[in-house]
Amino acid sequence: MTDDVAPVLEQEPAAAADLFGDRIELARSFTGELARRGEELGLIGPLELPRLWTRHILNSALLAPLLEAEGRVADVGSGAGLPGLVLAIARPDVAFTLIEPMERRCDWLNAESERLGLENVTVLRGRAEDVADAVVVDQVTARAVSALSKLIPLTVPLVRSGGQLILMKGARVDEEIEKARKVILRKRLTDVEVLELGVGVVEETTRVFRATVD
Ligand SMILES: C[S@@+](CC[C@H](N)C(=O)[O-])C[C@H]1O[C@@H](n2cnc3c(N)ncnc32)[C@H](O)[C@@H]1O
C-alpha cells in the first residue's frame, strides 16, 4: 500500500477536467485509490504510478465520446477498471457490464463501484465466451486483453446486430488487422476503421479498432 499518492494526483493533466467535466472528483478519487492499492492488489505494475493519469486514466476516458447516449456497454477483461470503470465515471448515462474472470479483480471492481456510488455498473465474473448468453449490449470495449484475431470472436457474441466493437490497441494495430482479416470477414464486420485519439493529450496516441457487427 502506498500512503502518499499526492505526487501521482499532482500529475493530473489539464485535459482531465475537460474529459470528465463535473465527474472529475470521482475520477480523482478512483485514480488515488488505484495509486494507493493497485500495486498491492496486482492491478498495476510499480512503474505505472508516474503515468497513471496519462497512460491509463485519460487513455481510457478518451473513449467516452464514442459511446451511445443511454446505451449498454460491456467491457471485456476490465482488470483494474480500464477502460470500463473510468468510462462509467465519465458517462453516468450508460449502463456498463464489466466482464472479468479473476475473483480478486471482481472484488476490486465491486468495491470501487460501491465506494464511488456508481449505479451504472454491474460486475460479471467470468470469461467473455462463457457469459455471452447472459449479455447483449450496444457496444463492447476492451483494452490489453488479446490480439484482434482472438478478441473479435470473443466480443462479437456480446453485441446486438448493428452494435459496435471499440477495441483499444497499440501501435501495431494495422498488423493485427491484417492477421485478423479472415475473422473480420467471417464475422461479417463492417465499417472497420482505426481511430487515433488523444493526439497531443496523452503520451502515446490511443489507437482504437472500431467496427459494426452485422
Ligand atoms: C492485461 S489485463 C488488462 C486489464 C485492463 N483491461 C487494463 O487495460 O489494464 C487482461 C485482463 O483480461 C482478463 N481476461 C483474460 N481473458 C479473458 C476472457 N476470455 N474474458 C474476459 N476477460 C478476460 C484478465 O483476467 C485480465 O484482467
UniProtKB/TrEMBL annotation:
Residues that, per the record, bind S-adenosyl-L-methionine: 77, 82, 128-129, 143
What's in the keyword line of the UniProt record?
Cytoplasm, Methyltransferase, rRNA processing, S-adenosyl-L-methionine, Transferase
Which EC number(s) does the record attach to this protein? 2.1.1.-
* Domain of life, source organism: Bacteria
Under which main EC class is this enzyme filed?
transferase
Record bears the keyword Transmembrane helix: no
List where in the cell it is found: Cytoplasm
**SUPFAM superfamilies, from UniProt?**
S-adenosyl-L-methionine-dependent methyltransferases (SSF53335)
GO MF terms listed in the record are: methyltransferase activity
**Reported function:** Specifically methylates the N7 position of a guanine in 16S rRNA.
> According to its UniProt record, which protein family does this protein belong to?
Belongs to the methyltransferase superfamily. RNA methyltransferase RsmG family.
Q: Which PANTHER family match?
A: S-ADENOSYL-L-METHIONINE-DEPENDENT METHYLTRANSFERASES SUPERFAMILY PROTEIN
What name appears for this protein in its UniProt entry? Ribosomal RNA small subunit methyltransferase G
Q: Which gene encodes it?
A: rsmG
